[in-house]
Specification:
Layout lengths: L4 H21 L3 H5 L10 H26 L3 H22 L3 H22 L4 H5 L2 H20 L8
């Protein structure tokens, strides 16, 4: 399948937009608002702008790698990573399972790291463009774990 460079960028932006839709479909809502959260959690308004910037950089990174290698194993890894990205909101907010979401986000983190490693020989710039993404997912992993731990049912001792 052949794309012009501009069309390819549009495809990568569209793929990221589709991944972002999961956050719109599975919104935190009242259930999440009622959970205990660590004091260091960013305000809700910060997540939208942060993810917007990240999705643009993720799309450009994928596009750069695709321009140099075409449809390759690296792009398949990238698409797997986007799938983990899209799925996290469904697990955390749709299923309301912060424990399963933590396991999911670990796989998500590994998929971002694998994408960076796969992109490096193709385009170091594309790999480096994913550094903020990996940092954000690292932070989100710690936040997910903290929320899960703060809201675990307490054991009842006789």
């Amino acid at each position: 399948m052949y794309f012009t460079p501009n069309t390819a960028l549009g495809v990568f932006l569209s793929l990221n937009f589709m991944a972002a839709l999961s956050g719109a479909l599975f919104r935190p809502g009242a259930w999440y608002d009622g959970l205990k959260k660590p004091w260091w959690r960013p305000p809700n308004w910060l997540f939208g702008p942060a993810w917007t910037v990240l999705y643009i950089t993720i799309a450009v990174s994928g596009w750069w790698a695709w321009e140099r290698a075409g449809w390759s194993t690296a792009i398949v890894i990238y698409l797997v990573s986007l799938t983990f990205n899209a799925g996290w909101s469904g697990v955390a907010f749709g299923l309301k399972r912060m424990d399963l979401a933590f396991g999911w986000i670990i796989l998500f983190w590994l998929s971002v790291a694998a994408t960076m490693l796969a992109f490096w020989p193709i385009s170091p710039a594309a790999a480096l463009l994913l550094v903020p993404y990996l940092c954000w997912v690292s932070f989100a992993s710690v936040l997910n774990f903290s929320i899960w731990q703060l809201n675990r049912p307490k054991a009842i001792h006789p």
